[in-house]
Amino acid sequence: MTHSVNSDLDLMLSRVIKAPRELIWRAWTDRANFEQWWVPAPAKCRVVDMELRPGGSFVTQISENGADFMPHLSACFLDIDDGKRIVFTNALVGGWRPAEHPFMTAIITLQDHPMGTEYLAHVMHRNQADRSMHEELGFYDGWGTVAEQLATLVEGRDDGRPTSSEVTG
Amino acid sequence: MTHSVNSDLDLMLSRVIKAPRELIWRAWTDRANFEQWWVPAPAKCRVVDMELRPGGSFVTQISENGADFMPHLSACFLDIDDGKRIVFTNALVGGWRPAEHPFMTAIITLQDHPMGTEYLAHVMHRNQADRSMHEELGFYDGWGTVAEQLATLVEGRDDGRPTSSEVTG
Prior knowledge:
The first copy, chain A, has about 170 residues and is α+β, with helices and mostly antiparallel strands. The first copy, chain A, has 4 helices and 7 strands.
C-alpha cells in the first residue's frame, strides 16, 4: 500500500475472503455481480454508472421494495489498479466535478492471503466530526454486512445468509 | 480533449502562448519556474507540495510582502498526462482525502497551435452559485493575469509586465 492511514480521520474494515483476487475483482467490476452484494439485503442495488477509469462516474441506486429506486452513491473513480485496488470519492462526481455533498474517499485493496484474499476498505474523511458521524451511522455494520455478502457470493456459498463469525473487521 | 464543458457550471480561459508546449510544461511542473507566475505580481508564491501524480499533494502559499506567507491553494492532483494535461481539485487534499473547503476542479490543457501553444484552463464547479461566485471574485482577471505572467516567462520577454492585448480569454 502506498497510502497512509490517519486513525483520527479514517475508518478501516478488513476481512479475509476465501476466494482468489480475480474472483473478488470481477464481483467488484462486473455490474451484474456488483449489484448482488453492494447494498445490505433484502434491499436491491442498481448500477447506473460504473466507468472504471480515473474520472469515471460511479453511481448506484437502492430499492427497499425492488421496484422504486432511490439515489444511493454518487461518486467518481480516482484510480483503478487492475486486480488490486479501486479508489473512489463522493467529493467528486463523474468527470472530476466537485460534488454537492462531499463526505468520503474509499480505497479498496485486494491482497493475496494464505486463505484467499485480504479485502481492505480504507475510508477517509475530511475531519473527525465526519469520521464520527460515519461510525455512528453504522459504518462497521454496513460495510461489514456488504463485505460478508461479497464473500458469500465469491466463496460460492449459496445459502445467501451471512455467517457473522467470519466478519473480522 | 476527452472531457465535456458545462457552460452553466464551468469557467474557461484560453490563450495562445508563443512558445512550445515543452517550455510551458516545464514552467508548470518545475517548482522554481512555477513560483514565478502562479500568483499575480507583485505578490510572491511559494510551492509547499507539488507531487505530480494522481493523489499527489499540491499546496501553494502567497505573500504580499515577500516575507509572510499565507495559505493559497490546498489541492490534490488527479491526472497528469505528460506534456499535455494536468488535472487538480481542491475538493480533495493529498492522498485523495476530502477537503474542508471544496470549490473547484481545474483541467489545464496544452495543445499545439500554429503560433505556439494553446493554453486552456477549464474550471468546474459543483453548482451555478459557485460558478457565479468565482466569476465575481475575478476569475477572468486572476487566471488571465497569471496566464499572461506564464506567457511572459516562457516567451522570453524580460520586461515582466503583462501586455494586456495578448489576453484572449
